[in-house]
Amino acid sequence: MNSIELPLFLSFLAGICTILGCFILFFIKGFKKSYLSFFLGLSAGAMIYLSFMELMPTAIKTLGFWSSNIVFFLGILFIGIIDFIAPHHFINYCSRKGIKYNKLMLSGFIVAVGIAIHNFPEGMAVFMSSLGDTRFGILIAFAIAIHNIPEGVAVATPIYFATKSKMKAFAYSFFAGIAEPLGAIAAYIILQPYLSPIFLSYIFAFVAGIMVYISFDELLPSCFKNGQGYTAIVGIVVGMLVIALSLNFI
């Protein structure tokens, strides 16, 4: 087993790429609604492709078809309940305070939470694989870092458009990204004696359900607004292509 410094560093680098996605948003001057549709579509494509082409096949290979699908739909149910209960409470609170609530803010919040939940087990995967095989851990960290960039855009874009605040967009992206090294730390402190391919497969199937729900409930409806259908489709396809190319290097 290797020392823990490199595995922790790899998980931190993978997570910090979420913030790079936030910076991409800031560096593009005159950001238009078509850009918003493209980046939201790109992130939806990345999440959907990752869920069905990597997370679910990995879970099915280890757990079997039915167990993986049960956990997948439990993930959808979990985030669906959160989406149904928590946002309504927050909207009512804002209304009582006389604050106009922007739905983009809600989308950004849910995406940030979903990505943070997704990044947490990814941090565990990077950390534990790096402990056993440094080269394998580096390859996984690289692939995760690639798809964390469009995820950072997915978080920062709705937050920035809702608040016009770069600091808030950065803060939400940081929240989503920092979950990765936190997952690595949790794996070292709590789960190292118990972590196994079976345990991670349950997590991946659960997270796949969460990501699919976020894509279909929040990202896709948002990216097809304002008559930007073709732009959104291009973004979706590019997002899938980015993840496909990154997975090819593993």
Summarize the structure.
This protein has one domain. The chain is 87% helix and 0% strand.
How is this structure best described in words?
This protein is mainly α. It has one domain (5-23, 33-247). Helices cover 87% and strands 0% of the residues. It contains eight helices and no strands. It has helices at 5-27, 33-63, 65-96, 103-132, 134-163, 166-191, 197-223, 229-247. Helix 1 runs antiparallel to helix 6 (166-191) and helix 4 (103-132) packs parallel to helix 6 (166-191). The longest helix has 32 residues, at 65-96. The chain is globular and about 50 Å long. The two termini are 21 Å apart. The model is unreliable at 87-101 (pLDDT under 50).
Task: Give the secondary structure arrangement, pairings included.
Blueprint: H1 5-27, H2 33-63, H3 65-96, H4 103-132, H5 134-163, H6 166-191, H7 197-223, H8 229-247
Alpha plus pi helix count: 8
Q: Tell me how many strands there are.
A: 0
Indicate the low-confidence ranges by residue numbers: 87-101
- Principal-axis shape equals globular
The helix content, as a percent range, equals: over 70%
Give, in order, the helices and strands: HHHHHHHH
Alpha carbon gyration radius = 18 Å
> pLDDT average, as an integer?
77
Largest sheet: number of strands, sense, barrel closure: none
State the distance separating the first and last CA atoms: 21 Å
By secondary-structure content and strand pairing, the structural class works out as mainly alpha
Number of domains: 1
| Proportion of strand residues | under 5%
Characteristics of this structure?
mainly alpha, 250 residues, single chain, 0% strand, globular, 8 helices
